[in-house]
Amino acid sequence: MQKSDVVRTGANYFENGNNKVSTSTAWIEKRFFSTNKSQSGDSEILPILPPKSVGLWLLASSTLVFAIIVVGGVTRLTESGLSITEWKPVAGILPPMSQVQWEEEFEKYRATPEFKLLNHSFQLEDFKRIFYMEWGHRVLGRLIGVAFVGPLAFFAVKKRISKPLANKLGGLALLIGAQGGLGWYMVKSGLDDALMETPGAVPRVSQYRLAAHLGLALLLYAGMFSSGLAIVKEWKYATGAQWMGLTTSAFNETLNSPAVMRFKARSWVLTGLIFLTALSGAFVAGLDAGLLYNEFPLMGGRLAPPKDELMSLAYAKRADGSDKWWRNVFENPTTVQFNHRVLAMTSYLGTTLLFLRARSMRAVLPPLTRTAVTAAFAVVNIQLLLGITTLLQLVPVPLAAAHQAGSVMVLSAMIHVLLTLRKPGAAARAWRALHMQRLTGGTKINKSTLQ
Fold first, then answer.
1. What is the DSSP letter of 30?
2. Strand residue runs (E) in 127-247
3. Pick from 277, 318, 284, 292: nearest CA to 406
């Protein structure tokens, strides 16, 4: 009896020799594929299609990054970030385990500008509260590293992912390590003794480093979330599902429509604007700018504060005042809050217009794109309400943390919109062709599907 052609997809398999087809599908793996030369006359090697487990792992990793962004926001809001004065990537995994160790850590904190200027009345129990907040934030960061690098190495060694994808995810792994170093670089800015010599200085981390730390976290999240979601969608497509609610030919025709191309370009611009708005929120947090002008939509009874307050010479450090503009943009709490309001309202208006445009293009856009845009519009409305309420209530921790989480949700919604406007990869198209040919009793793969 001749060797049968077998393609395994977890519990699912197609066996050409016995014409067996199972509808239970879990994952597809390239190395189990072989063709029967006596039947097909050709030996095809398909590109690696990452199994669904890879996509789920990336989505789980992005969830951990989402969590650490929120935890980091709470750490900042509770002013806990400067409680640990050293960076010990290995030894710092464990908190103090004895009274003596707690006293040692507290003594180090007593030497910081934050203790001397703000928390000089703290007792050991007060210190433990902020210490555990920062410690939890750091431990979660280490957990993300282990949860990402370990499975990545496994999938790469087992050739479950292609080399380009392995390189991309390896870059994300390096960014996780860089994020840890950047976090400590940020904390160091709030431990500088020079703060004691600056009149009116408030012990806090540099808003520039805080924004960089948040920006890198958002990039990590976006990379993991988009990759994971794309892999899951492509796996479903390869095993017989439609692509974004359309047949392949209908989707390709839709994507080539000039109106859809313009819609996609606007979606990219809006996604960038939402990312920029989230970064501006880091400057608001770093300067405690949310504690000013706790009213909306006005600021001091006006749509905008006076010009001399927005562009105050007091923030210029050069004698000629030539740095006044950019220093006010990034260092003046009033200007920072105003800029965040403008960016937030522009993002909201842009999302609303995109939603209305999607409704007018119902006959053109893929069904899943319309659903994704509707979800983005719903999330941005919630985020707007959270932002306004947080401002009016003088930035309570629960509301502010929810607002930070909301910014990630809005970004996620727009990433999903963009994913619904992309073609499936070559690997997914090739495996889908194999899937359909096996179902119809065919044996040969058309090489054009790999293009």
1. G
2. none
3. 277
Which residue has tokens 């198209």?
429
Residue 339 and residue 349: Cα distance in Å, rounded?
15
CA angle 377, 60, 55 (to 5 degrees): 90
Euclidean distance between the first and the last CA atom of the chain, given in angstroms as a whole number: 35
Please report where in the chains the tokens 């599907």 appear, as a residue: 449
Contact 433, 445 (CB under 8 A): yes
CA distance 298 to 314: 24
- The pLDDT tens digits for 219-251 are 999 999 999 999 999 999 999 999 999 999 999
- Residue 373's identity, in one-letter code, is V
DSSP state string for 271-287: HHHHHHHHHHHHHHHHT
Beta partners for residue 254, in sequence order: none
The distance between the two most distant Cα atoms of the chain, rounded to a whole number of Å, is 91
Answer yes or no: are the C-beta atoms of 430 and 445 closer than 8 Å. Answer: yes
Give the C-alpha separation, 67 to 7, whole Å.
Answer: 38
pTM: 0.89
Rounded to whole angstroms, how far apart are CA atoms 144 and 202? 32
**pLDDT tens-digit series, residues 24-70:** 343 344 433 333 333 343 335 789 999 999 999 999 999 999 999 99
Candidates 286, 137, 129, 133; CA nearest to 217 is 137
DSSP string across 112-140: SHHHHHT-TT--HHHHHHHHHHHHHHHHH
| Cα Rg of the chain (Å, integer) | 27
21 SS3 class: strand
Q: Which residues pair with 299 in a beta bridge?
A: 302
* Residue for token pair 């727009």: 414
Q: Please check whether residue 427 is in contact with residue 162, taking contact to mean a CB–CB distance below 8 angstroms.
A: yes
Tokens of 177: 């390590």
Q: Is the pLDDT of residue 120 over 60?
A: yes
User: Taking a C-beta distance cutoff of 8 angstroms, is the pair 82, 191 a contact?
Assistant: yes
- Among candidates 280, 64, 74, which has minimal Cα distance to 172? 64
Query: Which residue, among 141, 222, 151, has the nearest Cα to 181 in the 3D structure?
Result: 141
Q: Which of 362, 202, 393, 361 is nearest to 290 (CA)?
A: 393
Q: Which residues pair with 21 in a beta bridge?
A: 14
